[in-house]
Amino acid sequence: MRRAHLNSWLLAAPLTLVLAVFLILPILLIVAVSFWSSTEFSFGPDFQFGNYAYLFGSAVAWKVFGLTFLMAAIVWALTLVIGFTIAFFLAFHIRTLKWQMALFLLTTIPFWTSNIIRMISWIPLLGKNGLVNQTLIGAGLIDQPLEWLLYSGFSVCLAFVHLYTLFMVVPIFNTMMRIDKSLIEAARDGGASGFQILTNVIIPLTKPGIMIGSIFVIALVMSDFVTTRFMSGSQLANVGRLIANDIGLLQYPSASATAVVLLITVLLTIGAMLRLVDIRKEL
Amino acid sequence: MEKRPLSFYLLGSFFALFMLFLYGPTITIAILSFQGPEGGLTFPLRGVSLNWFRELFMEQAVGDIWGSFRRSLALGLMVMVTTVVVSVMAGLAFRHRFAGSTVLFYLVIGSLVIPSILVSMGIGLLFDRTGIGNHWATSAFGAHLTWTLPFGILIMFAVFNRFNPAYEEAARDQGASTWQVFVHVVLPLIAPALVGVGLFGFTLSYDEIARTILASGSRNTLPLEIWGMTTNVTSPVLYALGTLTTVFSLSLVVLVIVAVTVMQRRRARAGSDAGSGMV
Questions:
Q1: Any bridge partners for residue B48, and if so which?
Q2: A70: which residues sit within 8 A by CB, 6+ positions away?
């Protein structure tokens, strides 16, 4: 027994080392720096709560945290509905495994390409002289190009859905494929309609997949700053950008305090979701 | 065959629309990267040319694209190899319960959900304050591992959850050592999954911005170079670069699919000779 433990520890040592140096240590440092003080040009060790007091007293910060939650909620709802529908189609309407795998692969391939390039790809479509505006004007539906298509909350949301729906499709499809088909037969024999089968059999059994997908999407959207900055043309704020802006001004203590609050918020949200699903069992 | 219900056609159309949404933008910039020399960032195409690709290959036309590509390639390969090795070791460790295994597992999940900007800023500060200095091959390398390892380890969980220990027991009964069991039995069986882990390791690193941006020091990786270009480059050269790097990533995916298919075919062909000695 002792020997088995030792073996496992040795095998887990590299992972532990990497996480200790590149995850735990940096986060402890951020927690420490969040209590430091700073002037306009420098910052140094201290122990004071000024950064937190400033953060919690700032109306802007509250608003930005609210906006971040709102964006996460909207994107979560959209990716869930779209992701579930796609997974449902693949798992229950495609009849051969070969086609299921082929179409599943087609859904996942964009994941392997660059996110920033995929964001840039929206410019020729949504820009002021983009394809969408050209088409709408050509069809006589509008006189002036729509300005809110690009560099707006709309385009940020669109990009999130574009980039992250996949994180819903994969785990939901994975759980759906493991549903015993005889359960659905039984429901049908019992006289359930297609819709009743969906709500009473498939959705409850797909819950673990939905939870895992939700964890990914919410964590990614809440901590984002790259997508929000690029797709909003620096016009929309979220917590990640608040932190990035402070860093740009070398206000590391203030950035750290915001980062610690963001970290706690994300961990509480995800922690609550983890209580509803046993990830290790679902893999 | 049973007649398709109406819902099949509705959902099928939805799927087709989703595919259009997924691939449409990428196809659009692929077309626009062949824009004529006079053309701009949007349609119409003013002639068809290779002008913007040529510009990419010209000396220092737009930043240090090729230098950053080489760095991203090297970093991606380093992350790939490390991710595969560390994930396999951890995967083997997690097959048995050991003191601290639950904590370590939640740390892995934490690594996945902790906002990337914290990792980036924390590592950047750490390497800066300790005087080691930030460099893509050290600090950014570590930052990428915090993102690729959880994926690798979750895949290993999935693999070992379905792994039949009878093969190992059989080998052990025949007198194989622990190392021989691993090399001759376990490793060949998990090889296709490892190719997948490697692909995750490479591409997640190759495309990463948030975790690199504060931890890479003075030299840019390719995504950072592109990120910088978005603010000052307003010609289709950006599309040409996007098309090239997308083609590069897609070729990797195709390569991996082919490799895994070949592995599985070969395994199916080799089959089992169990019982053939009984005749």
A1: B35
A2: none
Respond yes or no on whether ipTM tops 0.95.
no
Q: Is residue A21 in some structural domain?
A: no
- Residue B137 touches chain A, beta carbons under 8 Å: no
Residue A31 lies in a domain: no
In a domain, B46, yes or no: no
Rounded to 10 degrees, what is the CA torsion of A225, A230, A235, A241?
A: 20
Q: How far is CA B75 from CA A23, A43, B70, B222, in A?
A: 19, 32, 8, 11
With respect to residue B188, please indicate whether it lies within any of the assigned structural domains: yes
Of A219, A225, A244, A217, residue with least CA distance to A156: A225
Structure tokens given for B150? 């959880």
Q: Could you read off the pLDDT of B66-122 as tens digits, one per residue?
A: 889 999 999 999 999 999 999 999 999 999 888 889 999 999 999 999 999 999 999
**Domain range for residue B212?**
63-232
Q: Which residue of A has its CA nearest to B10?
A: A89
d(CA B185, CA B177): 11
pLDDT tier, B36 (very low <50, low <70, confident <90, very high otherwise): confident
Looking up residue A81, the CATH number of its domain turns out to be 1.10.3720.10
Residue B166: CA atoms inside 13 Å, Cβ hemisphere, count? 2
Instruction: Quote the number of domains for chain A.
Output: 1
Q: Which one of B21, B42, B134, B211 would you mutate to disrupt binding with A, by most A Cβ within 10 Å of its Cβ?
A: B42
Token readout for B274 is 């169990």
The span from the CA of B99 to the CA of B78, in Å, is: 30
Q: Is residue A101 in some structural domain?
A: yes
Any idea what the CATH number is for the domain that residue B135 is in?
A: 1.10.3720.10
- The confidence score (pLDDT) of residue B59 equals 63
Whether B132 and chain A come into contact, CB under 8 Å, resolves to no
* Average pLDDT for A97-121: 92
What domain range includes position A222? 59-282
Given a contact cutoff of 8 angstroms between Cβ atoms, the answer to whether B205 and B142 are in contact is no
Task: Name which of B114, B159, B213, B243 to mutate to probe chain A: the one with the most chain A Cβ atoms within 10 A of its Cβ.
Answer: B114
Answer whether residue B11 is part of any domain.
no
Pick from B52, B26, B69: which is nearest to B225 by CA? B69
**Is some CB atom of chain A closer than 8 A to the CB atom of B145?**
yes
The model's pTM is 0.91
Q: Which residues pair with A38 in a beta bridge?
A: A43
Distance CA B231, CA B210 (A): 17
How many structural domains compose chain B? Answer: 1
A150, A130 Cβ separation under 8 angstroms: yes
DSSP, collapsed to helix, strand or coil, labels residue A216 as helix
How far is it, in rounded angstroms, from Cα A209 to Cα A179? 12
Distance from CA of A83 to the nearest CA of B (A): 10
CA distance A52 to chain B (A): 17
Cβ of B104 and A131 within 8 Å?
A: no
Tell me, yes or no, whether B196 lies in a domain. Answer: yes
Q: Hey, how many other C-beta atoms are within 10 angstroms of the C-beta on A98?
A: 9
pLDDT at A46: 84
